[in-house]
């Protein structure tokens, strides 16, 4: 953590590195004793309302057991969203759509009917095919805060 007056100095650097920044303020209660705190702001790479120079999107991909993908693009800055299903065999057509959006975050939801190893390979290959997996060496896929390290690199 760091003091709130340092937020403007460090915010863009943290967001560019893919971090989510949560601002917690101390509440004025007028009571003595332990201080109460609450979340006042949340900044993420796709939802930085301080820097509106480029409209950023969150891409959500749902993997179902019947080889259907649910695709959602959402911009928190203007509320614009697009949702559509696509079959696994037509997945290459989605790349042409995604190229026109500035995607800063990807949320993946899976139906765990398939084996986890097979699913990780499917996710990894899909993101590579759509040019969405970052090329830097520390790139990772996180599942509920846990990094997947067995990627087929």
TrEMBL record:
<keyword id="KW-0496">Mitochondrion</keyword>
<dbReference type="GO" id="GO:0006298">
    <property type="term" value="P:mismatch repair"/>
</dbReference>
<dbReference type="InterPro" id="IPR016151">
    <property type="entry name" value="DNA_mismatch_repair_MutS_N"/>
</dbReference>
<dbReference type="GO" id="GO:0030983">
    <property type="term" value="F:mismatched DNA binding"/>
</dbReference>
<protein>
    <submittedName>
        <fullName>MutS-like protein</fullName>
    </submittedName>
</protein>
<dbReference type="GO" id="GO:0005524">
    <property type="term" value="F:ATP binding"/>
</dbReference>
